[in-house]
Amino acid sequence: xxxxxxxxxxxxxxxxxxxxxxxxxxxxxxxxxxxxxxxxxxxxxxxxxxxxxxxxxxxxxxxxxxxxxxxxxxxxxxxxxxxxxxxxxxxxxxxxxxxxxxxxxxxxxxxxxxxxxxxxxxxxxxxxxxxxxxxxxxxxxxxxxxxxxxxxxxxxxxxxxxxxxxxxxxxxxxxxxxxxxxxxxxxxxxxxxxxxxxxxxxxxxxxxxxxxxxxxxxxxxxxxxxxxxxxxxxxxxxxxxxxxxxxxxxxxxxxxxxxxxxxxxxxxxxxxxxxxxxxxxxxxxxxxxxxxxxxxxxxxxxxxxxxxxxxxxxxxxxxxxxxxxxxxxxxxxxxxxxxxxxxxxxxxxxxxxxxxxxxxxxxxxxxxxxxxxxxxxxxxxxxxxxxxxxxxxxxxxxxxxxxxxxxxxxxxxxxxxxxxxxxxxxxxxxxxxxxxxxxxxxxxxxxx
Length: 448
Ligand code: SPV
Ligand code: MG
Fold this sequence. Notes:
Helix content is 43%, strand content 16%. The chain is an alpha/beta fold. The protein folds into 3 domains: 13-133, 3-Layer(aba) Sandwich (Rossmann fold), CATH 3.40.50.620; 154-403, Phosphoenolpyruvate-binding domains (TIM Barrel); 409-443, no CATH class. Helix 11 packs parallel to helix 12.
């Protein structure tokens, strides 16, 4: 998208920046005040509308796209012009526009936005062009509350499905967490940390064949059928709003895969990953310790193409997973396959590795990106777990999947508690290892 802005204007400017995703009376109040200031100086109100990636850099991707939000805001008579603000920081736009006034609610004096505010003050003072106006915050209404209410109402199938593509366009890397039940998905949905003023949370869920099988006490050999796995996903979707990526193993026979694609789309799954293996599939982390056969490039391309033809929505993604490094076939083979799969219609590539070091994945990323700057790349750093998601993103990966950690963590905790009850012949000693019943009751909406 072209985000260039017209900077030269003789008319004095009142500048307001907003996400304007859930427009409410608090926004209108700010805009009315900006309008009054503009009218006093015969100026114009310029809205710096935060782009999707500017918003995604500090919170969830907005419900409405930039273009949709722009259409809404341009129709307001309070605003003369809408321009993009491509970062959370106002600095670039203030330097370009040299506004007479910048208007923002006074709520940003404390908390995560205080740094942004200070930067506005510093830039205005350096340029000597204007001043900051801070009307008092409108109590009783906020985007955060509206967002929480919207979440409680739920999300439509299509809105959830399409979120993944929007996230990929707006943010890098995405962090995706394995979920094998509604309760594990609730954790992945709600957990967050605040780091240097930025709220970090998981962007979506991974439905792992390994943990979906393990939680049913079955081996990871495509033994759990799609219907059973979709039941779990439906339970997850009942209580969450984030997008989900589905691990479809080999995708099965082409004739079956086309039906799976439609079932996944109908459920609201955003992407399916199929791996280029054939015959009895075993878990990749076993590598060549077990017999595993890689599919031919031609046959796997046919599967991708058939899947792409079968899908009904525009947004559903088919991601091709390359097992060449797992099966020790080398970089050349992995790269040849990656480019062939993209040619066949794959919407993304997953490169897998079971090395402790990230080096072979980093080499793949750098060589693939030299020829293809845009196709999204997925990595699963289960073995090479010392590299951070941020570093993998810098190296060219778009999606980082933490593929099995919630199940592995719960197993350790459950075993310890079960043994503790036997050891002490009562539960008093292990209470501290358990969530309290009170917490359980307050965790799930609708319990009380
Ligand atoms: C899974 O989570 O089931 C995967 C990733 O396919 S891996 O187990 O590393 O093969
Ligand atoms: Mg799997």
